[in-house]
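Students often ask why we bother predicting the structure of a whole assembly rather than each chain alone. The short answer is interfaces. A chain on its own may look different once its partners are present, and contacts between molecules only exist in the joint model. In this exercise we take two input lines together and write out one structure for the complete complex. Read the inputs first and try to guess which parts will touch.
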Amino acid sequence: MEEMTGMIPQLLIDGLTLGFVYAIVALGYTMVYGILEFINFAHSEIFMVGAFAGTEVLLFMQSAGYLEKIPAPLALLIAIIIAMVFSGALGVFIERVAYKPVRSAPKLVAFISAIGVSFFLQDAVRLVEGLWKNAFYLSTPTLFTTSINITNTLKMPVKVIYIMIIAIIIMVSLNLFVNKHRLGKAMRAVAQDRDTASLMAINVNSIISLTFLIGAGLGGAAGTLFSVQYALIHPYVGFIIGMKAFTAAVFGGIGSIPGAMLGGILLGLLEVFGAGFLGILTNGVLGAEYKDVFAFAILIIILIFKPSGLLGKTVREKV
Amino acid sequence: MMKMKKISLIVLVALIMLSVVGCAGATKAADTGTNGEETNIIKVASVTPLSGSQAAVGESIKNGAQLALEERVAEFKELGFELQFAPQDDQADPKIGVAVAQKLIMDNDLLAVVGHWNSGVAIPSSEVYAKGNLVMVSPANTANDVTDRGLENVNRICARDDAQGPAGADYLYNELNAKTVFILQDKTTYGQGVADEFKKQFENIGGEVLGYEGITPGESDFSAVLEKIRVSKAEAVYFGGIYPEGSLVLKQLKEKEIEVKFIGPDGMDSGEVIKIAGEAAIGMFYTSLAADISGTPEGKVFVENYTKMFNKAPEAYSSYGYDAMNVTLNGIVAAIKEKGGEKPTREGIVAAVRATNGFKGLATNVTFNQIGDNTEANIYVLSFEEAKYPASVAKEISAKSYLK
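Now the answer. The structure tokens for the assembled complex follow.
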């Protein structure tokens, strides 16, 4: 028991960090689903491309010597902004090339198209990095080395604090944008009823593009944060994160923006606490490797009682 | 979950297509057979992961094998045969490995296989090779079951897990003076296999195992498990797995300021460890079945030729790819002589390779015992003294004493 309570604060920090990354990626899934009712399975690869873009920026700054001259948070900010622009543009491009032509076809067609894009991006990044650097594992330059000692055993690395702050800023501003801004309202209108929205002089195509721009941009930001936190990326890194983030989006209620945030953070915490405690709780029968089983079992139980997810609304029949 | 489904669907389609192509190839070969025409082509395949997260090491083995083969093309020409190299990609995936194996046994000119990298892929694939009487010489598969199944066609030039794990345990307990350990493994045939053998020996010689946990390959966050290591107060961590996860564990241990000794198996033997873990790799130990060849004159020539050909420095297992290919080619030559200069049968090659005795290789000498294990293999304990690959050898142990 003492063993468990000793671990709780540190696990809380680790779980929140992981959860924030899941949450930002989950936003990309949920936004596209909200508008188009289609799961953009290429989002995990947009996340990966964003991670590469951000990391390459940091690596460039390192080799050019800028990294020592400018403060680390500023360097991180620059990397995130460039990664967001890059992956946002990529998201819009993918939508135009791979989804828009099949928008009127059955949903499954767009789904297959997304799978194709996903494979394409994995191997494209591998090819480019392979040709350019002769290796496709990128190790991220270390930005923050210090950590704050909260107690003797509890440490909070500075980078975790920055990651959390940036994640919270992103989520709050996205919420404000969607709820208060004119374009955000237009987005919600398109989500509710595309045809009626177009009758109200909303340009549906550009709103869809905007959704992809924001969703993919968030993926890019998440990728950079991930890369800074875990320090190693490769072209296949999006797969597991993407699956978990998609799960988080369903968990919180797919289509709901606050739901994705809540789902992501809860999934991160469940996973980390599962890994930490399963062995102790079951007396060593189930080890840390069952953390996903644990997290998903809880997810299934919640979905049985709340099929639309934690914050999801039961969709009313569209008239 | 949907993604898993989509992948298995694609694999299924690929399998169907492969078997169609394979059948077509077989009937065609049979046709030429009835006409009495036989090609003088001898193909030797290498099967390693050339894509995916383990592609770097897979490619280094393939390159070693390719170098050995190309050096001997002229020798085969004199014997009247055209020697060809057929590199294959198993993507470190058992399903793909079996599909590739099915394709290979259908090719009548293909007479031998050098591979694989992952034991979990080698075991099911070698069952398929056995059906086709195709010889397999493994440069790097350490799982016991690779040879313990007693297949005629399966041989390996490296030592076994039940040697590598115990050697690590002996070294940790006796030389590094750690009496308590926390074991992490990646749930693969290889990782869990070597971790279990380590555990057995460590407990046998009086050490205490304070924890045993599995991690998921491909994940990036191991923080919760590392916290368990911290509270367990173990003196050392044994990591049964491969470098992408192992290096991250090293890095995150350092970030969390958990001070433990770290020892792993040869899955940690890669230059990528330094790239990923950086300074955190200093002072870590790993056992390796691969010799450091850079000191010997033959080794220097090899490094030079390799670098010239592939524009990259060889990795630890490149020389094993090279030796495995040479053992294979020697077997083929012996089988050719057995048949009086005619193209050998696969059965002939299987017997000739197994009879290998006293082969002097670049990285290891090779003498196969009755189940295809190499009785002359060595185990090395290495350590990073600075953040630079390759690591320096701390101790050399003969694997023969661990061979049952």
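Check your guess against this: The mean pLDDT of chain A is 88.
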